[in-house]
Amino acid sequence: MRKKDSGNVVVVALVVVNLLLWLIFGPHNDGSRPNFNRQLMAEIIASTAVVLLACALFLSTRLRSLEAYFGGLDQMYQTHKKAAMLAIFLLIFHFFAAPLNAGQIKPGTPLGMIAFLGLLALVLLTIAPRIPLIGRFTQFAYHKWRRSHSLIGIFFIIGFAHAMLVDPLVRKTTVPLFYLLIFFFVGAASYLYSVFIAEAVRKTYPYAAEGIRRLNGTTIEVALKPRRAKLPFTAGQFAFVRFERDPVLSEAHPFTISSAPQEHDLRLSIKASGDWTQYLVEHLKPGMQARVDGPYGRFNYKAGGKRQIWIAGGIGLTPFLSWIRDFNGQLAGYEVDFYHCMRVPEDGLFLEEVEQAAAQHAKFRPHIFYSNRDGHLSAENVVASSGPITGKEIYMCGPITMMNALQKGFIRLGVPARQLHFEEFNFR
Ligand SMILES: Cc1cc2nc3c(=O)[nH]c(=O)nc-3n(C[C@H](O)[C@H](O)[C@H](O)COP(=O)(O)OP(=O)(O)OC[C@H]3O[C@@H](n4cnc5c(N)ncnc54)[C@H](O)[C@@H]3O)c2cc1C
Question: Which of 145, 175, 334, 403 shows its CA 20 to 30 Å from the CA of 277?
């Protein structure tokens, strides 16, 4: 098993252990409870949801030490999202499975309702952009969504109060109860850490905006000069950047570092794709002070086999740009076909640097793709232009729709999932 898969395996194992503990140490039906079996099932489902939600809250602490076990922060957020969505799914079952004896509303029941509806609403808001039916009615700027999302822990804690106040069967047990309490504690502590402590204790590096270069109508390159120690990073990693003393830019946003680790300044290539980035492109001035929190991410071609395919879509070029700038005169035995995809030639970024790298390294072969001329790049196009795909590692970064389509295409052509590597520019 690869180290980067072990994190997901642990999450699954924690859920399985919960089920086993209920099976082995669960409560016995002494006849004192009507609907015992239904109550038991409802509680097993709910406790599983608590384990998953606690894992999701723990992953949202962004602890760097966890990255190696998930394959980078962006993949940790994928697990965070999937665990939370599965938990909500289970809570819907719990909501309908839990027996509600007429006239016997327990003190915790209304709390359960509040916790369930709160969690459901916030998770639906999170997935709304990917579900057109909901997305149409919930057009929320990201920073507003993030503010609402940070309320999730409160409903988790209300859920705990509900669980303890509805006279549950679990209170008649020891081991399942102890296990459940551990996860309530881990979830609540992770939430309080993320909301109240993390920003204060997370190490950030002071930088200052030095050079700002407009690359095309929507994209700029920013060179940040270290004010003290340089941020140590590996080519392809990203960081959260915010600018001090500005009402908008003081919110941290993630950007891949497009410079090479040995460079003095940190370079970012930023495309205006929403309110914060648009504001940055219009208002960033040399000398503005920045705080850089990083490095994060495990998108690293050196972890893969020697024969590779790299596919960059639009601004998804940045991790590859850092890799190319980090060649440092040698490709170290790698053989790379690099697909640089953009809509139109005007969107072309750093084409000269890519061509220079090709001139210096015979085994680095760029392929420039303009979708308005060539159509969307497909897995078949890649095979047609770079030969058989067997045994090649494929690294992709770009718009989600593009990466999903290519992923399906490569899998259709028999490429094993473990040879496909992604950098997601979207945590949501
Ligand atoms: C790992 C990673 C690396 C990235 N590297 C680059 C890069 O090199 N160059 C580049 O131009 N863009 C990069 N991005 C995307 C960049 O972070 C977003 O375009 C930017 O944050 C958009 O903010 P906005 O307010 O302008 O747009 P909005 O319209 O508010 O957001 C657009 C999308 O950007 C994402 N986003 C917005 N705010 C945040 C935030 N605070 N934290 C996390 N995600 C957010 C969300 O997915 C959102 O749906 C990267 C994103 C990630 C996750």
Answer: 403
